[in-house]
Every structure is written in structure tokens, then in C-alpha cells.
Amino acid sequence: MSSITQEIPPEVLALLPLPDVGTLAPDQARGAVCLWCPERLTAETAVDLGEQAGDDGRWWPRACGPCVGRRAHRALHSHVALCEPCVDNVGQCQAGLTLTRLVRKYRR
Q1: Residue 33: strand pairing partners
Q2: pLDDT in tens, 44-70
Q3: Which residue has better confidence, 53 or 75?
Q4: DSSP per-residue codes, 38-62
Q5: Cβ atoms of residues 12 and 55 within 8 Å
Q6: Residue 54 pairs with which residues in a beta bridge?
Q7: Contact (CB, 8 A) for 64 and 39
Q8: What CA–CA distance (Å, rounded) separates 16 from 92?
Q9: Structure confidence by residue, pLDDT tens digits, 87-107
Q10: With contact defined as beta carbons under 8 Å apart, do 58 and 51 qualify?
Q11: How far is Cα 25 from Cα 31, in angstroms, rounded to an integer?
């Protein structure tokens, strides 16, 4: 499994909106399939999105790299528009910097 979770602070994970666990197929909920597409995941291809808590309890979502990259790209555009430090230099903001790294690592 990818070690990227250790690189994604909780405040950045919150910028990547996850589907409600109750709306997921069983394979998606258990991390065998990407949260956002039908891609089957392996230990090499899965991006661990950390532990999440919901009405149905705790769960550990996983996604494919391309989906994480696309969502990080959208989140970066939204974040930069509202973050004063990012307007001047995205490297001044931990959230902006982390989103930029996710885009570079996973967007294809």
C-alpha cells in the first residue's frame, strides 16, 4: 500500500470529499475497489486515505492514484482561491503544498 497517507495531513484529507460509506458498493467500502471509479486496487496501486469516522462507524477508504490526482487538482483550485498565502506562493501553505504534491504524483 502507498505510504502517501503519512504525507497527507487530516486537514488536506478533508479537502478531498469522500462519498458517504453507505452509498458505496461492498468492494469499495472494504478498499478492494476505488471509491470513485471501478478500478480494482492492489497493494501497489491503492492510495490509503486514512481512517474515517461516519455514522456507520470507522472505515479506511482507498482510491486509485488517478482519481486522487483529479480530486487533489480540483481541491487545489478551490483552496488557492480562498487562501491568501497560496495566492502569493503555494509553498507557504501546508495544504496548498500537499495538494500540489498529490497532483504531481498522481495526476495522469
Answers
A1: 40
A2: 999 999 888 877 788 889 999 999 999
A3: 75
A4: S-B--TTTEEE---EEETTEEE--E
A5: no
A6: 57
A7: yes
A8: 20
A9: 888 788 999 999 999 999 987
A10: yes
A11: 10
